[in-house]
Structure formats: structure tokens, C-alpha cells
Give the backbone structure.
Amino acid sequence: MKQPVNLSQADIKIKEKKSSWIIWLLPIIALSVGAWLIYKSVVEADVEFVIYFEKGVNIVPHETSIIYEGVKLGVVKKLSLTQDLKGVEATIEIKKGAASMLQEDTLFWIVEPEVTITRVTGLETLLSGKYIAIDLGEKTSELTLDELVKLKPRKWRYKALDEPPLKRGGLHLKLTAHDAGSVAEGAPILFNKIKVGRVEKVHLINDRAVEFDLFIEDDYKKLVRKDARFWDVSGFKFQGNLSNIEVEIGSLSTLFVGGIAFSSPMRSKVEALAEDGDSFELFNEKTTAFSESFKININFKNGEGLNVGTLLKYNGIKIGEVTKISIAKNFQEVNVTASLIESAIGAARKGTKYWVVKPKLGLAGTKNIETLVTGRYITVKPVAKGQLIHNFVGLNEPPVIEDLVAAEDGLRVTLSALSLGSVKHGVKVYYRKVPVGTVIGTSLASNAKKVLIYLLIEPEFAPLVKQNTRFWNAGGVEVDLGLLSGAKIRTESIESLLGGGIAFATPDNEDMGAKVKSGHIFTLHHQLEEEWLKWSPDIKLGN
Amino acid sequence: MLGEVAKTLGIARCHYCGKACQMPKESMENAAACPRCGSALHLRNFNSLSSTWALLITAVILFVPANVYPVMSVFMFGNGMADTIISGIIHLMHAGQYPIAILVFVASILVPLFKMIGLGALLLAVQFGWSINRRQAATIFRIINFIGPWSMLDLFMISILVTLVNLGFIATIQTGPGATAFAGVVVVTMLAAHTFDQRIIWDLVEE
């Protein structure tokens, strides 16, 4: 063995002595951090509770989350069937901080993807799977944050809702209608064609009425007043007649899922806003929605050709619509209920006459031919003043002369005849074979001795009628057969040949007599005298 | 022969340049420095035992949260799934990934455990003067030193996954508090192995 070599001596360097206790800080820190973690996990331990689901809901333990406003609060820990095998109980772990949400009225429901034409919701669940949504109940959600934080969890077993609860905030209304039409759940509620809400639910109330639950967004709830009118804008409306065709489409989405529009009447004085739970009627279309303002009943002897939807027109403009037709209890009349549009309320004054306009294809003239296409309609002769009333008696024929005095210009004369012959309402009155007026009515004289025929001579031709004017029945063909004179066939016109007519002549100037006023009565001669045809007075026509 | 160690001869070897030096008298032992490179010389590292104890205890403490808390959370389509080390291994086994499961088990459970138990046993033996097989003890210590960094395997995997799998909503991986604790365990055990002056082993009584 070798002797140890001489080793060099170590240097001596005096230096401060390192303290050895610093290293012991490490375990102390580790311990205190660990203790703090343990304390935290105890204090913030997840809270467990149970949600009961009635139907199979495809919940996956450890994956299905509880989500509130997009924030994950917990997860399903365990899933088990209830003892009766009818439902599923999910044990949920929720963060302690969120445990104050577990109040009596807290709501739970499953969020699934929903893709409809109007909206796509829960799309995220397509990838992430369903989740359980949680929301505070009505009472709890009214609390302030401070109050909420202080709450202790109160309930540990819940029953999940079948479907998402109605949104809070905004306005919840109900609409009733006879049928759901094509308005589906999710259909938009439109105001001036802007979507302000949607149909939450459609359900039957009983076997003849449907109820819609509407939700109006919070921002728009001031648009709904107490007197708002709602109408269906579903699909497209096709309205047309010979002169114009109108196609109305609310919006593309309403074409598929329907839609409901609303607004308040233009001159509405109602300021009050609709409140939650208010109920309204759903109308089929806008016009009916607003024509509700005045309802009238008209009793007709004969309801032929009248339908629900038959229009009320004045001077060709729609003023209302028949909403109901029924037979009177005594089977003598037909009760027609019509609603007048707001601006035509004047047509409900006392004294207004209603009658049905029907097509007339007569030899004396074709009238109202448009009604062949549009159907019959009810027209009205309004009066300028009067009280508004609801019940009227309808005429089946246009009103006769007395009623028209005020309405039309021209000279009105009455003819008395022994019989009516072929004269009837509407036949023309000729002067030198020029039509100058019409028969506007016929009636039996009050003593029944004669027939009265009312003529209206157009104002331009009124001066032609003088006191000595002779009227004769010009209907048909007049054939004079004489051995010496040969045959003479006379007729006023083809029209009068077929449909009858009245002609008149006035004597030459010196014999014509004075001017006549409306109401003058002449005799209707059955036959003319040759002499009359030779008269040729010089009369200045009116206007 | 084995009983004759450098310490009894008063010879210390410089940790850095390897020069063997004759140590001064005992009273001046703590002030010795290498005459060649000037670094401190110790016959036995100063405070080695107590530091190692402190670090080992820290490691044991950290080992608890490292296994209790999730090390990694995988978010797929917004749904998170947090895994602790053990649950991760179980998942891998269920998925049939046995080699990886074994690898993770060895790197994350066995190795740290072995290190802590090994170091603990050595320390106890030193502390209480147990008689042991010194060569075996040295082997254990060398193994501990060698496998120390390999526990980092898990952490490397996690850090790579976190950076690679970052597809936002579709898939994201996040580290959990367990990973931090686990990294602490690895680092602290390595430090403990480092502060442990293996020359102490030679002071022990041979069996």
C-alpha cells in the first residue's frame, strides 16, 4: 500500500455561516398551501342535489352539465332510474357558490338543439350534447344580488320542466282564435313588419277555440296597447278581381310558419299599455281586425247570394263585410251581420238604406255585370245626418223614386197608365228615338185604379218635357196593315222592341205648354197618333 | 478497508475541480476552500441531512395534491373532463393503451414514490445509525439520481399537449393544479437528491 501523498492544504476563507433553517420554510409553505387547499375544498365542496326527469333525456353522467346563462355550474354525477322505472333521477354536483340558486322555485329543463325555419336554438348542443339549464324562479329572480348571495340552499330535489319556461321580462299575452290557422309555435310577432316577439305556444282551450301564448320582447312591449288588434299574416293572401290582383306576403318566414301582426287603431285614444296575461282576439286579416269598430244587423227578406265575406260597398269602395248570416227565428227574414270599417261608420246612421246589388241581364239592359265575377254585394244609400243605430231593414231591390229625389238630378215625371204593359224598371224613355231617360220605378196607384210609372229624364233633356207632351208605350212592334196604305212597321229601337220602352213627343212651339216640374203626372197613351210624330218643336236643351 | 474513508484522513475532494485537499482542523472546517479553484470544501456537506429532510418532507406533502387534484383537463366541444394522474391511467387502460398506461404509471407514480421512499430510508438510516449494506445504499442513491428527471416525462407530455391541442371550442387541454404540485414533487426530490451528500453513506455502519 502506497503512503498517502502529501496533499496541499485547503485554503481558509472566513465567510458568514449559512443558516440552515431557511430550507425548512419549504415544507412549511407546502404544508400551509396544502392546508389551505384542503380548507378550500371543504368550504367550497360541491353541493349535491337531485333532479327528476319524467322521460328519457339522454343525460350522460360526468358529461352533461348544468349551465346558467352559458356558465357551467356543475355536472351530472350519477344517473339512476326511479324505483317505479318511470323516470330518471340525476344526481347533480353544483359549485358551492351557485348553491344559493337552489331555492323552492328554481327551474330546471333540458336544452336540446332546435332547428326551425324561424330560428335555430341550442345549436351548440349538437356538438356538446344536451345540457341542463337552470333558472331562478319568479320570486328569487326579483331579489337583489346581495340578497341572493345570502340565501341558503333550500331544496334538494327538483322535478325538471318538460320544456323551457317562458322568458321573463318582456310581455306575455294570450290570443284566442277559432283555429290555429297556419300559425305555428315560434312564429314571429310583427309590428310594422319588424319582429318584436314570437309565439311561444299554441294550444287548445276547448273544442272550439285555440289559444296562443305570445312573448313580446322587453324592448318592444310599449308598442302593445290595451286596444291593440292582432291579425294573422300567415302564408300569402291572394286577393283579386278583374281589375287588379293583390298578393300579400308578410315575410318569407311567415310563409312557412305563419306570423301575427298587430297595431293599435289609428285614432286610438287608449294610452294604457297591455299587461302580462292580457287576452286578445286573433283576426283573420287586417281589415277585419280593424272593422270591428261598428257592427250592424241588416234584415233581408231574401238572403240569396249573400255569404259571409260579401262586401258592403259604396260607390264601388269597400266599406264593410258580412261577418255572419243567419235565419231569423220566424223564418221570414235573413239576419245579416256586417261590420263597417272605421271610416265608414256614417253608413250606420238611421235612415240609411241597404240593398243587394245583383247582376241584371235583362232585355232592358245589362246592369251590374261586375257582380257576376265579384259576387253580389250590398250597397248603401247613406244619409247625411242621423243617429248611429245597429239594426237596419234591407231592401231586395234598389230604392224607388222617392228615395232618389235627393240623390239624382234630372226631371222626374210620373206617368199613369191602365196597365204596365211591357214597361218595367230600367226601360228607356225615347225622344225621337234618342234615349233621354229611364223608368226608375213602377207602382200601383194607391187606389189601384192605375199604374204609376216613374220616369227620370236626364237633366240635359229635361226641357223637352212640356205640359202638353204626350207619352206612349213604344214597346214591341207596331204593325199597321191597311189595304190601301200597305204595311207599316214601327219600332223605337231594337232594345225597346225586345224590352219595351216609352216614347214621348212635344207639340210645336205654340202648343207645347209651360215647363213642367218634377212630380208632374202625365197619361201614358197606349198608342201614338200619327200627328205626334210630325211635331217638331224648337226647344233649347239644357246645359 | 471500507471503514477507512477520506473523512478519517481529513481529506476532502473539491466538488468542482476534483482536487483532493488536506482539510484544516475541525474548528476551521467550515471555512475551508479549494486552493485551486476557490470553491468551498467540506468533508461532509454542511447541513446536508437537514436540507434533505426538509426537501423530502416538502416532496411528500406536495405528492398529496399532485395525486388528488387533476393534472390535466381536456375540453371537447365545451365539455370539460378533468383527470388526476390515477384517473388518467385508468382511462388509458380502458382505452386499451396499456404501454402508455404503464409508462405513465411508472413515470408519475412509481418513480416519485421510489425516490421518496429511497431517500427517506437513506435519511432514516443515517439519522438513526442503522447498519446497512453501504454498497446497496450507494446503488439506490445512484438510481434515485438517475431516474429523477424521468418523472418529468408526464409534465413534458402535458406541456406539449397544452400547446398543441388548442383548437378553442373544439378541443382544448388545460393543466390542472395537480400538475403544478407534481412538478413541485419532481423538482423538490431532485433537489433533495442533490443536497444529500452521498459520502454520508460511507459513515454508516456496515452490516
